[in-house]
Hints:
Blueprint: E1 3-13, H1 17-48, H2 54-65, H3 78-96, E2 113-118, E3 122-125, E4 128-131, E5 140-141, E6 154-159, E7 165-175, E8 184-189, E9 193-197, E10 202-204, H4 208-211, H5 213-224, H6 231-265, E11 268-272, H7 276-279, H8 286-292, H9 294-307, E12 311-315, E13 341-343, E14 349-351, H10 352-370
Parallel strand pairs: 8-11, 11-12
Antiparallel strand pairs: 1-5, 1-7, 2-6, 3-4, 6-7, 8-9, 9-10, 13-14
Helix pairs in contact: 1-3, 5-6, 6-9
Amino acid sequence: MTQQVKRAFRYRFYPTDEQAAELSRTFGCVRVVYNRALEERTRAWYGEQRRVSYVQSSAALTEWKKTEELAFLAEVSSVPLQQALRHLQTAFGNFFAKRAEYPRYKSRKKSRASAEYTRSAFTWCDGRLTLAKMTAPLDIRWSRPLPVGVEPTTVTVSRDAAGRWFVSLLCEDTIAPAPGTDAAVGIDAGITSLVTLSTGEKIANPGHERRDRTRLAKAQRELSRKAKGSNNREKACRKVARVHTRIADRRRDFLHKLTTRLVRENQTVVIEDLTVRNLLKNGKLARAISDASWTELRSMLEYKCAWYGRELVVIDRWFPSSKLCGACGTVRGKLPLNVRVWTCDCGAVHDRDVNAACNILAAGLAVSACGDGVRPQRESSRAGRSSVKQEPQRATAGIPRC
């Protein structure tokens, strides 16, 4: 059954000097409006315990344009400024709902330079996009076509730290589910092997950051020698940013191809609920874990499974997938990270990663079939006793094996 979803199609474009100047002014005005509105809301909240609504912020914006200090706000399109206020309203809504921290101010150097245009602030005609306050359409490089008969509802223009310009077109798209299949796969995330599948296949970690580490270190050394505030420092900053964007682009491309393949080939995909934030506290592995980008991998699997009618099962983070014998169900007491192959008391020899992927699949199938739990029956460490010192036990009795 087809479904309607909102999809953003991102393209690179090359503005003229006039367009670049207009967009740069717009980015600056968006930042000023956001920060000024945040300042007013902060003063009202901490000084008077009073909330400021979007309507009040919008009325204040009208008054700001009439002042001599902020008269330049009237020189750009009003729509991106109003959108900045709406984004701030959403940020405060998340804060009061305890879904996010208190909103932060936008920095001229560190924050993402972007502006959002709604349907009233751009013209779309025969595949040509013209923004408000501009006379010529943007020179967009159409790396892929938009869906047939679809028009963008929102346009977001941005410039990254490397100086590249991008335009993101938000459209209503119709997605057909992928052909049905009975295949299922368990995925064990790692560092040497980015993912190990329950089929026994290991997909090596490309190590994009590691491959460009020498180039990045050279660019950073050159940056450290430049005087702060100089033009040469700005050029060196862009050179460092270009190396970072090269790494990020290659990593994202690899993850897209991998997740698309996994979703197309399998009806059920089972993964672990990893706490990447806690894992990054390990100083020896933090850089490698960041380069693996497990969070982005999971995010792609989540929305692609939802799009194409697949089932994504996430098992409990405390499930002992590596320590559990896939043959007899015994949980091993200790299993250091340097042990990649181990032998159970029953005589079964396990590859650590393949065994973990098979156990993840088995646990996920059990959860998918009957909603059964996958956490082992063990004493909680909160009671003052370590679960490692307990006798080996069967943690997954009744769970089907690979």
